[in-house]
Design brief:
The chain has 13 helices and 8 strands. With about 350 residues, the chain is mainly α. It folds into 2 domains: about 140 residues, no CATH class; about 120 residues, Gamma-glutamyltranspeptidase, large (L) subunit, C-terminal domain (Serum Albumin, Chain A, Domain 1). The strands form 4 sheets. Strands 1-2 form a two-stranded antiparallel ribbon. A hairpin with a 2-residue loop joins strand 5 and strand 6. The longest helix is centred in the middle third of the chain and has 21 residues. The protein starts with a helix and ends in a 54-residue tail after the last strand. The C terminus is likely disordered.
Length: about 350
C-alpha cells in the first residue's frame, strides 16, 4: 500500500515509531495492569516477554516512561536496508524484503523452530510459522464485497475475514422498518443483536478463503435466504448458535457444530486465545481519511502481549489472529499450510 499508493519514504514512516521506542512514552494504566497480571506467567513460561515488558524484573508503573530499545534497533535496520536502494518505491520494496524474506523472518523462524512455550492448551508447543511461510506471503488487492442497503452501498472484505457478517446482518435487517423504532430503545437493540447473532452463526460454518474453498457467499447474501433467517427473530433473545443450512453444505454444517460443541466447555462459542490466563485482549482498529480523500482502514489485531511470546532480538511479538480456526478436515475453516482460513478481523493489516 505504501509503495503503490503512498508518498512517504520508509524513513518518514518509521521514524516516529523509532523515536517512541527509543526514548519512551507514558505507559497507559491499563497496559501496566495487564503486564502486572501476566508477570508471573511471563517469568515462568515466556522469558523473552518478561525481559521486554518487565525491564529489570519490575512491573512498569502507570505513566512511567516505557522504552523498547530492541524494537527501535529493528526498525533502524529496516531503514538501513531500505536506503541501500535508490528511489522511494525500491526502498519500500527493500523494507518489505527485510521483513518477510530478510533478517526479521530469519529471527522469527529461528526462534519458533526451537522454542517450546506454554499455550492455551495447557501444554508446551513449538510455533508453526516458518521463514518460508513469510517469504511466500504477500498482500493482495481485491474487489470488495458489497451490499446495497436503502440507497447506501456498503463495502467489506471477502469471506476470508468476518466483513460479510455486517452485510448479512443488513440483509436480515432490511426486512424490518427500523425507522419506526426508537434507535436507543430495547426493541431496536434486540432486533439488531438477534440479526447479528444469526450472521455470526453463519460465519462459524461457512466463511473461509475463497481461493481454496467453496464459500456460498452469494447465497448467504441473497434475499430468499435473508427472508428465512429473518423469521427466526422473535420477541425473546436466543441463546443458541443457529447457522442456516445451505443445500450442498449439510455435512459441513453438521461437522462444524460438532467441533464447536466439543471445543466449548460451557456451550458458548468464543475466542479461546489466552483463556487460561484470565486476561482478555481485544481488537485495535484505525480509520484515517486524508485531505486528498484517501481512506485507510486497518485492524492490526492479535498482537496482544498475552497472545504470543516476544521474539528475541526483534522487540515485538508476531500477530497471530488464528485462535478461531478449526483444524480438522472437512469445513472451509482449516489451518492448512499455505491456505488461509477465515479469521475474526475485518480489514486485516500487517506491518509494511
Amino acid at each position: 500500500m505504501l509503495r503503490d499508493y503512498g508518498t512517504m519514504s520508509v524513513r518518514n514512516v518509521l521514524e516516529p515509531a523509532i523515536y517512541y521506542a527509543e526514548h519512551g512514552h507514558p505507559l497507559l494504566p491499563r497496559v501496566s495492569a495487564t503486564i502486572k497480571g501476566l508477570a508471573a506467567f511471563f517469568e515462568k513460561e515466556w522469558p523473552t516477554s518478561h525481559q521486554t515488558w518487565l525491564p529489570g524484573g519490575s512491573v512498569p508503573v502507570p505513566q512511567a516512561n516505557f522504552r523498547n530499545a530492541v524494537l527501535a534497533d529493528t526498525w533502524k535496520r529496516v531503514i538501513a536496508e531500505a536506503e541501500a536502494k535508490s528511489g522511494r518505491e525500491a526502498q519500500v520494496e527493500a523494507a518489505r524484503d527485510a521483513f518477510y524474506r530478510g533478517f526479521v523472518a530469519e529471527r522469527i523462524d529461528a526462534y519458533l523452530k526451537t522454542a517450546e512455550v506454554m499455550d492455551a492448551s495447557g501444554s508446551r508447543h513449538r510455533g508453526v510459522l516458518t521463514a518460508n511461510d513469510m517469504a511466500n506471503w504477500s498482500a493482495t488487492i481485491e474487489e470488495p464485497l458489497t451490499y446495497d442497503y436503502h440507497g447506501w452501498t456498503i463495502a467489506k472484505t471477502g469471506p476470508w475475514g468476518q466483513g460479510p457478517v455486517f452485510l448479512q446482518t443488513l440483509s436480515i435487517l432490511k426486512g424490518f422498518d427500523l425507522t419506526a423504532i426508537d434507535p436507543v430503545g430495547a426493541e431496536f437493540v434486540h432486533t439488531v443483536v438477534e440479526a447479528m447473532k444469526l450472521a455470526f452463526a453463519d460465519r462459524e460454518v461457512y466463511y473461509g478463503d475463497p481461493d481454496f474453498s467453496e464459500i456460498p457467499i452469494a447465497h448467504l447474501l441473497s434475499e430468499p435466504y435473508a427472508a428465512e433467517r429473518r423469521k427466526l427473530i422473535g420477541a425473546d433473545a436466543s441463546f443458541d448458535l443457529r447457522p442456516g443450512i445451505i443445500p450442498g453444505f449439510e455435512a459441513q454444517h453438521d461437522l462444524t457444530l460438532k467441533m464447536l460443541g466439543a471445543d466449548s466447555k460451557t456451550g458458548a462459542v468464543y475466542e479461546p486465545t489466552m483463556a487460561h490466563l484470565e486476561k482478555r485482549g481485544d481488537t485495535v482498529h484505525i480509520d484515517v481519511i486524508d485531505r486528498d480523500g484517501n481512506m485507510v482502514s486497518v485492524t492490526p489485531s492479535g498482537g496482544w502481549l498475552q497472545s504470543s511470546p516476544t521474539v528475541p532480538g526483534l522487540g515485538f511479538l508476531p500477530q497471530f489472529p488464528r485462535p478461531d480456526v478449526l483444524a480438522e478436515a472437512g469445513p472451509a475453516d482449516l489451518a492448512l499450510t499455505g491456505k488461509a482460513a477465515a479469521h475474526d478481523t475485518d480489514a486485516f493489516a500487517r506491518p509494511l
